[in-house]
Request: fold
Amino acid sequence: MVVGTSPDFPPFEYVTSNGSIVGIDIELIKHLAKMMGYDAIKIVSIDFDGPIPALTNGKIDVIAAGMTITEERKKVVAFTIPYWSADQAILVTKNSNFKPKSLSDLEGKIVTVQSGTTGESLVDDFINKTGAKITVKRHSSFVLAVKDLLNGRVDAVIVDSPVAKLFTQKYGVEVATIISTGKHYGLAVRKDDTQLLNAINEAFKKFLSSPEWKAIID
Ligand code: ARG
Reply:
């Protein structure tokens, strides 16, 4: 089984100092694959605007990338049962005077997002709807987006709330506000891969109530 991920999204997927890709999604798919009888899986690193085409082209079989289940994506891929909930966060530098409480407060500012994410569409949709003058800088990776914030090149990052929380523990950044979107993550497979989808879901349901899953999260 070939699994695609964008490893810039701690604690779900990230790269350790020795170059290995680790995280909750990686542990999760490894356990599920084992339960499904696979001897080994291959993890492939792909920027987040890439895994859906890679999946539909057959280069990978599963996306494990903290991917939000959306109606738009459901037209192209099939999602497993949901396994995590997430909102969007506006991240700013620690002790900054700029404390946006909503997207409107980003007027006149530069925000950065990862290309292809729901954070990107949140701000793009807001600009299209309201005509707000917000400059959006698009990155291939959330880690680079946070570095831009730390270097003072941008005013804020829009990123999923669980990942924002982890960034606040690792870097000098803080969450200015949470925008409630009430979304969920799922793994994704090709739409016609019904057998694989059913097999993953069957293992997944068992796994979500297992002590191993709790241990991974801890
Ligand atoms: N949950 C968001 C989305 O689905 C962001 C996911 C980004 N994932 C990543 N591994 N960088 O659009």
Summary: The helical segments are 24-35, 51-56, 71-74, 118-130, 142-150, 161-170, 194-208, 211-217. Residues 194-208 form the longest helix (15 residues). The CA atoms of residues 113 and 138 lie 5 Å apart. The chain has a mean pLDDT of 97.
